[in-house]
Amino acid sequence: DIVMTQSPDSLAVSLGERATINCKSSQSVLYNSNNKNYLAWYQHKPGQPPKLLIYWASSRESGVPDRFSGSGSGTDFTLTISSLQAEDVAVYYCQQYCSTPPTFGQGTKLEIK
Amino acid sequence: QVQLQESGPGLVKPSGTLSLTCAVSGGSISGNNWWSWVRQPPGKGLEWIGEIYHGGNTNYNPSLKSRVTISVDKSKNQFSLRLSSVTAADTAVYYCARTDRYSSSFDYWGQGSLVTVSS
């Protein structure tokens, strides 16, 4: 299985400031046939299901605010929230779907400083 | 707008079988998508259990494969999960989700169903 490791485990950021979450995979998740990284980011709030934010490492899901962006390739990826809003408090997960089984990172808890 | 809704018993006895159903609305389960089950034990992260295509093809997480069966009922537009020989470690919120056919990410999720394994 591909192991996904996120850093940090928790993060406190002031409102309006930038938040950055990292994700590293134990193997490349770049699919050579179409040159796409099969890496997604989800936002998970208590009592709700996870919400897809980013797919293919950097493509924003429809309806997701543009303050959320994803970057990276191969084994190293980053989720950036450019200007933190109160409603962004959540746990964030990266997930690979390059190979079966799909696997998730351990999660990063984002709070307001 | 595709919607998914899990249903099933919230309490299962140890060594018993966990059974959940996911009803799909706003779209056909016979479309070009895979349908998955994902779980989250209390205080822990997300774990993919397995998936099914409307034709009946399945893929399972090797860590659970010996105990998992996922099936589909196209006439009811729903799919189901059975997990046998459960222990307290199987206590979790169980989510059903749709895999987007282009990106392979999970784009629609049910609200989740808490299943507790206890005598």
Distance between termini of chain B? 39 Å
Q: What fraction of residues of chain A sit in β-strands? A: over 45%
Q: Label the structural class of chain B.
A: mainly beta
Low-confidence stretches of chain B: none
In round numbers, the mean pLDDT of chain B is: 96
Helical fraction of chain B equals under 10%
Radius of gyration of chain A: 13 Å
The pLDDT mean of chain A sits at 96
Weakly predicted, low-confidence segments of chain A: none
Largest sheet geometry of chain B: 7 strands, mixed
Give the chain pair forming the largest contact, with residue counts.
A-B, 25 and 21 residues
In total, how many beta strands of chain A? 13
Name the features.
heterodimer, A: 113 residues, mainly beta, seven-stranded mixed beta sheet, globular, B: 119 residues
What layout of secondary structure does this protein have?
The complex is a heterodimer of chains A (113) and B (119).
Chain A: E1 4-7, E2 10-13, E3 19-25, E4 30-31, E5 36-37, E6 39-44, E7 51-55, E8 59-60, E9 68-73, E10 76-81, E11 90-96, E12 103-104, E13 108-112
Parallel strand pairs in A: 2-13
Antiparallel strand pairs in A: 1-3, 3-10, 4-5, 6-7, 6-11, 7-8, 9-10, 11-12, 11-13
Chain B: E1 3-7, E2 11-12, E3 18-25, E4 34-40, E5 47-53, E6 58-60, E7 68-73, E8 78-83, E9 92-99, E10 106-109, E11 113-117
Parallel strand pairs in B: 2-11
Antiparallel strand pairs in B: 1-3, 3-8, 4-5, 4-9, 5-6, 7-8, 9-10, 9-11
Any overview of this molecule?
- The complex is a heterodimer of chains A (about 110) and B (about 120).
- By secondary structure, chain A is mainly β.
- Chain A is built from no helices and 13 strands.
- In chain A, the strands form three sheets. In chain A, strands 2, 6, 7, 8, 11, 12 and 13 form a seven-stranded mixed beta sheet that branches.
- In chain A, a hairpin with a 2-residue loop joins strand 9 and strand 10.
- Chain B is mostly beta strands and about 120 residues long.
- Chain B contains no helices and eleven strands.
- In chain B, strands 2, 4, 5, 6, 9, 10 and 11 form a seven-stranded mixed beta sheet that branches. In chain B, strands 1-3-8-7 form a four-stranded antiparallel beta sheet, with no helix packed on it.
- Chains A and B meet through strand 6, strand 7 and strand 12 of A and strand 9 and strand 10 of B.
